[in-house]
From TrEMBL:
It comes from the Bacteria. Residues 203-230 form a coiled coil. This is Tetratricopeptide repeat protein. InterPro entries: Sig_transdc_His_kin_internal, TPR-like_helical_dom_sf, TPR_rpt. GO terms for molecular function: phosphorelay sensor kinase activity. Pfam families: His_kinase, TPR_10, TPR_12. The keyword Membrane applies. TPR repeats lie at residues 110-143, 190-223, 230-263. It comes from Xiashengella succiniciproducens.
Length: 626
């Protein structure tokens, strides 16, 4: 809370013990200075008598008429100011300024500008307020009145703060503070620190606000100004409530309450009770809040503090409504309306303040309704989002499940096709025909040897064809068996050499079962390629290259058109890679289908000079270890 600024007046606030006729007779006998002193005293205790005394100023003899007119206008402005009649006060101060200019009274002219600035501030005309404070500051600088200069800075800072020009406000407060520190005006120093803290609090920099409140508290304690110490404690308590430190706020406000009671400051006592009630309401302890509001209400009624009572009735109404005690809420609301209307009727000058309070009450109710509406809206949208997310998850899950089932189906069909190709029934039929021919020509021994060889080969085919991966050592054994069967079928000897730089680990390295068979079958299908050769040769190598296993197959088919990379061979090879990749996915060994892990087929024809000597095919497999 920003401390109300001090007016530049020449006054001594004393309770007037003489009123009525005694004042009138005294005024007839005294000179201007004495009469002014009586006017100052009367303004605070008896407005009617003050008005009569001000009229007598203009009737004094032996003085400059402009000086008397200036005094009369100035103190009429003071009287209207004390009654909050801002429009009339503004007119009287403006008249005083004109007359003080004529008599060249710089000090009182500065005071008139300052007070006019205050009135313009209360009227909400901030530009005019700053203009008048600037004029007052200019005059104070001329007469080098340090105290007056500091007060002008302080008043201007308050106006800028109200206009939310916080940087400018803080700059002016700092200038006022520098002057007060230099002049050792410690209470004014404390006041400036209090106001700076209020600016930081308004700006949302709560830590800076707390630090400046503590400085204000330090100076007020040094000066033993208990009343202002309690006011700063109340401000700190309000700050703690903003920080939602309700327990700490409660302790600070209770200290302020004890000081207010000791000082007999009833207004501050009622206000502190009200703040404690607000603190407990924010904590959700509504019964304790109502108890404190009732304590404050009793004092407000006793000492006729109508504005505070109006605010308390509004607070009680909101708390009763919060705890759904609607009968009590209605009673307080009706009392609030009745008191508001009475205050407006008795004193129209309170209209703006009362209407502001009414607007604040309406805003609080609106905010409460908005808060409830927002909570319902958030709950509604949360449900919608929850249902939507659940539906999306269910849809995505169903889609993924359907996709996985389709993939599994496709892979199973692919596996069946691959198994059929691996079994190669044409090869079996051709082998059996050779056995039949041997039997027909009476070469039973050869027929038995062929049957034994075919039986072992069929056993290996049945063993390996249903598996996706087998050790490299078994793949090599299978290749040798396959080539022996082909040797018997073709009637030409087949020489083969199988090499590997990982032969010692061949039992731990996995390869797709019967992966090399399609390439050998592709080469042997073109028998014309070996027509000019006495024997058929195959060189087969399994070489580790980093994280890949390179497979190399070479033959000596010098004639014919043996294309290892033909379309059907590439499709069979790719299908085998897809099948193995999907199997890894289903077994949790992979995150996605990666058929490209099976490297591309690279084939070429081999030459010795310009003479064709055979074919070569190379491809890479991912290095898989068991």
């Amino acid at each position: 809370m920003i401390r109300p600024f001090t007016m530049l007046r020449i006054s001594v606030i004393v309770v007037l013990s003489v009123v009525g006729v005694q004042l009138t007779s005294a005024a007839d006998e005294k000179k201007l200075a004495d009469l002014v002193e009586l006017v100052v005293e009367a303004i605070d205790v008896n407005a009617a008598e003050a008005r009569k005394l001000i009229n007598r100023i203009e009737d004094l003899e032996g003085y400059n008429p402009d000086l008397l007119a200036a005094y009369a206008a100035f103190y009429r402005g003071e009287l209207e100011y004390s009654l909050s009649n801002w429009s009339e006060a503004s007119q009287q101060y403006s008249r005083a300024i004109e007359f003080y200019r004529n008599v060249n009274d710089t000090a009182r002219l500065s005071a008139a500008y300052n007070n006019l600035g205050l009135v313009k501030y209360y009227q909400g005309d901030f530009d005019e307020s700053i203009e008048n404070f600037s004029q007052s500051l200019k005059l104070e600088l001329e007469i080098n009145n340090s105290y007056g200069i500091a007060q002008c800075y302080q008043n201007m800072a308050i106006v800028f703060s109200h206009g939310e020009q916080f940087a400018k406000s803080l700059d002016l407060y700092q200038k006022a503070l520098d002057v007060y520190l230099k002049e050792q005006e410690w209470e004014e120093v404390a006041s400036v620190y209090n106001n700076i803290a209020a600016v930081y609090a308004e700006y949302g920099q709560l830590d800076e606000a707390a630090a400046n409140y503590e400085k204000a508290l330090e100076y007020y304690r040094r000066e033993r100004n208990n009343a202002m110490e309690a006011r700063v404690l109340s401000n700190i308590g309000s700050l703690k409530m903003r920080q939602e430190k309700y327990d700490e706020a409660g302790r600070i406000l209770e200290r302020a309450l004890v000081i207010n009671k000791a000082e007999g400051d009833r207004f501050a006592e009622v206000n502190t009770y009200s703040m404690l009630g607000d603190n407990y309401a924010k904590k959700g302890e509504y019964l304790q809040s109502i108890y404190l509001y009732k304590k404050a209400e009793g004092l407000a009624v006793q000492y006729e503090m109508k504005e505070l009572l109006l605010n308390l009735l509004n607070s009680e109404y909101l708390v009763y409504k919060q705890i759904e005690q609607y009968d009590s809420a209605l009673v307080n609301f009706e009392r609030y309306i009745a008191l508001r209307d009475k205050m407006l009727k008795d004193n129209p000058d309170y209209a703006k303040g009362v209407m502001d309070m009414e607007l604040e009450r309406q805003i609080k109710e609106r905010d409460h309704r908005i808060k409830k509406a927002i909570m319902r809206e958030r709950l509604f949208w949360s449900l919608i989002i929850l249902v939507s997310v659940s539906a999306v998850i269910a849809f995505a899950s169903a889609y993924q499940r359907r996709r996985r089932l389709l993939q599994q189906k496709n892979v199973e069909e692919l596996k069946k096709e691959l198994m059929k190709e691996k079994c190669n029934p044409d090869l079996m039929l051709s082998s059996l025909k050779n056995v039949k021919q041997c039997i027909e020509v009476g070469d039973s021994e050869r027929a038995v040897d062929q049957l034994d060889m075919i039986a072992r080969h069929i056993e290996q085919v049945l063993k390996f064809s249903g598996q996706e991966l087998i050790p490299l050592s078994m793949e090599i054994d299978y290749l040798r068996s396959f080539l022996r069967v082909q040797d018997q079928m073709l009637g030409k000897p087949i020489e083969h050499r199988i090499e590997s730089n990982v032969m010692q680990n061949a039992g731990a390295i996995l390869v797709p079962s019967m992966i090399s068979q399609p390439f050998l079958e592709n080469a042997l299908a073109d028998i014309m390629a070996f027509r000019s050769q006495d024997k058929i040769k195959f060189d087969i190598a399994f070489m580790r290259r980093g994280n890949a296993l390179e497979v190399i197959i070479e033959d000596n088919g010098a004639e014919g058109n043996c294309h290892y990379a033909c379309k059907s061979l590439e499709e069979k090879y790719r299908n085998m890679g897809i099948a193995v990749s999907f199997s890894h996915i289903y077994k949790g060994k992979g995150l996605k289908n990666r058929p490209t892990d099976f490297g591309y087929i690279r084939s070429e024809e081999r030459y010795d000079g310009k003479v064709k000597t055979g074919h070569r095919v190379c491809f890479n497999l991912p290095l898989m270890m068991q």
